[in-house]
Amino acid sequence: MISLAGRDIAHSWSKFVLTGIGLGLLIGVTLTMAGVYRGMVDDAHALLNNSGADLWVVQKDTQGPYAESSSIKDDVVRSVRGMPGVAQAANVTYFTMQVQGADGDDTRAMVVGIESGQSGEPGYLVAGRQITRGHYEAVADVKTGFALGERIRIRRHDYTVVGLTQRMVSSGGDPMVFIALKDAQEAQFLKDNDAIQNDRTRTANNPAFNRPGVPGLLDAVQALQSSSRSVNAVLVQLAPGFEAEQVAEPIRRWKHLQVFTRAGMEEILVAKLIATSAKQIGMFLVILAIVSAAIVAFIIYTMTLGKIREIAVLKLIGTRNITIASMILQQALGLGLIGFIVGKVAATVWAPVFPKFVLLLTQDAFTGLIVTLVICALASTLAIRTALKVDPAAAIG
Amino acid sequence: MKQHPVLLRRIGIGAIAISLVAALAFVALRTGPLAPVKVTVTSVQEGKLKPAIFGIGTVEARRSWMVGPTVAGRVLSVRVDVGDTVKAGQLLAEMDPVDLDQRLAALDAALARASSTQAAAQAQVADATARRELAAINAKRNQDLAAQNFISAGALEGRLQEKASADAALQAAQANLSGTAQDINRQKAERAALQQQRGNVRLLAPADGVVTSRDAEAGSTVVAGQPVLRLIDPASLWVRMRVDQGRSAGLAPGLKASIVLRSQPRTPMPGQVARVEMLADAVTEERIAQIAFAAASSSAAAPAVAASVGELAEVELQLPETASALLLPNASIQRLQGKTGVWRLSEGRPAFVSVRLGVSSLDGRVQVLEGLKAGDSVVVYSQKALTEGARVQVVETLVKGATP
Fold first, then answer.
1. Cross-chain Cβ contact A10/B333 below 8 Å
2. Which A residues 288-327 touch B at CB under 8 Å?
3. Quick check: B30 and A9 CB within 8 A?
């Protein structure tokens, strides 16, 4: 028994391989698109994992700190620390802004204000060290492109990059820059010098604040205006043996704050924050999959049509239908397999080049493989139908 | 000859198939869950730490004065401007004395009148003295006569009464005289008081210093206590440093400091902790200490430090070297489920070990008091968060060009 499929492929192997590679690139694009979607969801999860929190305490009636802005006073953390079941609580601020590197180029980054040694701190580094000084040091994600020892500028202060970390991104995929909480509070609410001067003059011109009989009032009012004592959220770690909801409920009830558990936060991030863009990608993925399937089907169909004369000859010499059908099916599956391998390799090779994270899951790859083979098999039935219907007389012309 | 193309073709197909499978295998092993996590490791070693305290602060003057009137009034003239160096006692500004000079003239007149009154009282005393002497002589004579019974007892009593009256009149005159003297004293005191008030409207420099602000101009009205001028002693500049309470262990007067001014980031200046305030800031959770410039104390005459009041400064305080202990970089310290520990490599697999930490230094090294022994291999950097028993691959560095 000779392998008809193998013989045929060996006959025009370069054409077969080139077709497989072309198909593979198409499958690679589809896999990458799935990776982009997965990466998006994973960015949201990475944000939650990196914060290291079990509960998020935010401003009442807001869905902060990631989806909405939330502002609470920085001494709230003390009353939260006193609640039952709270092992650790730490202030944190999040602020997306342009950070200027040493060469003067802007990088979009999420500036995170952390208390060192508390949750919120980057969990692992790839170079350098954690922040040790209370001011003007930063740990940056490698995606920002900053190097160790580089002086970066956030608002009016220069910060030294002392550590690098990886996969610390916001839900939008912006890399994070960690700085000390007090610096971050200042950076978040600090206005530029002109604005401050204008405000001072405005206050000084207000007769209510600048009364001749009350020396010192103006200074006090102006000092009050320029200070900031707010943070975006309090990250809470649970003590062993406590359920998240069990700890969250008293804080909601008695401290008049909104508290999210991990599940609630995931719901906000995945189902609300990135819902539209994820659907957008998902829609595109579906269309791309359909188009890919159609192209695979057409390729196999035209490949068969190109061999219609040879098939007629086979029929003429009395080859059984099942042999011809299995030849076409084997070729289709082989093409699918080559395409899948090329696609998987290509996707893996070009995934790191993408500016945002592309997550290629093994389970996605398996699904892709099965779908590819199924589509190839289905497409081959079309070709088989045509091949079986061909008149043996066509061989003679 | 006919076999060759087929053979070549087969070899070609085989090579392509093998390369495809190899690429797939490579991809599967390099990414995804099968790939090992790249880590770098360090071995725990003994060493000494030089811990330090880092804080930021602003330059302030230890001695500053607000010069202003003690009563409300109008500014007559301001003699100095911002930046002027002034000596102790120098006239800086003058308040409008309003009617003080006229009141002084009135008091002068009253004093002159009091002197006249005193002269009159003296004359009265002389008169009374003369009358008393006459009455005394008369009384003496009549006593002698009465002793020889030349005159009646009644006549003697009349003379004695005259003498007593003259005595009383003299006393009255003398009292009157001392009264006028006291009156003069009172007038003098009142004049001196007014003179003081007159002097008080002249605002003098309380000490040597530099004018830092001129808050009122001639003609403006100021209330009592409102400053017209502000002075500082430029030799008394120091840094009011705020340091996070959690990182302030060891903060004490006398510690050596290195001060970096915002205006001169390349030249650290030596200094010393002059004072640690007893009151910490409860809201910002910071402690406050004053750092004196070392140069300022040696040459107190000139403003040795070219710093402006209110300028931002970074301060690093050197604490004494610790005893020898096990040291680790702080990047290796992880927090897992509320526990502080490190990933120790045992037989190529990471295992989480709880540790107790001691002091840390600003360069990112931290003492390990318990949980590890010297020579243990500990993960410093990792590509992603590690889990117990994960497959790891030890590499030299994770980021190109980054040397810790």
1. no
2. none
3. no
d(C-alpha A89, C-alpha A242), whole Å: 15
A290, two tokens: 């359909």
DSSP string, B227-259: -SEEEE-GGGEEEEEEEEGGG-TT--TT-EEEE
Task: Give B9-49 pLDDT, tens digit per residue.
Answer: 778 778 877 887 888 787 777 666 667 888 888 888 888 88
Could you tell me the pLDDT band of residue B300, with boundaries at 50, 70 and 90?
A: very low
Rg of chain A over all Cα atoms, to the nearest angstrom: 31
Pick B404's closest partner by Cβ from A124, A127, A133: A127
Place of tokens 């190097």: A147
Overall pTM > 0.90: no
Residue B297, SS3 per DSSP: helix
Asked if B225 reaches chain A (Cβ–Cβ under 8 Å), the answer is yes
Q: Is A166 in contact with B384 (CB distance < 8 Å)?
A: yes
Distance CA B65, CA B225 (A): 12
Q: Per residue in A133-142, pLDDT tens?
A: 888 999 999 8
List the structure tokens of B358: 């001691």
Contact A184, A111 (CB under 8 A): yes
User: What are the residue ranges in chain A where pLDDT is below 70?
Assistant: 1-4, 397
Nearest Cα residue in chain A from B381: A126
Task: In whole angstroms, give the CA distance from residue B238 to residue B294.
Answer: 10
Lookup: tokens for A30: 């589809």
In angstroms, rounded to a whole number, what is the distance separating the alpha carbons of residues A225 and A199? Answer: 9
Distance between CA B168 and CA B135 in Å, rounded? 12
Position B299 pLDDT exceeds 60: no
d(CA B263, CA B286): 24
Query: Residue length, chain A?
Result: 397
Ramachandran category for residue A85: left, alpha or beta (phi over 0 → left; psi -120 to 50 → alpha):
left
Contact yes or no for A332/A379 (Cβ under 8 A):
yes
First to last CA, chain B: 64
Residue appearing with tokens 């945002």: A356
Which residues have a Cβ under 8 Å from the Cβ of B80 and sit 6 or more positions away? Answer: B86, B90, B92, B93, B211, B214, B229
Cis (ω within 30 of 0) for the bond into A65? yes
According to DSSP, residue B121 is labeled H
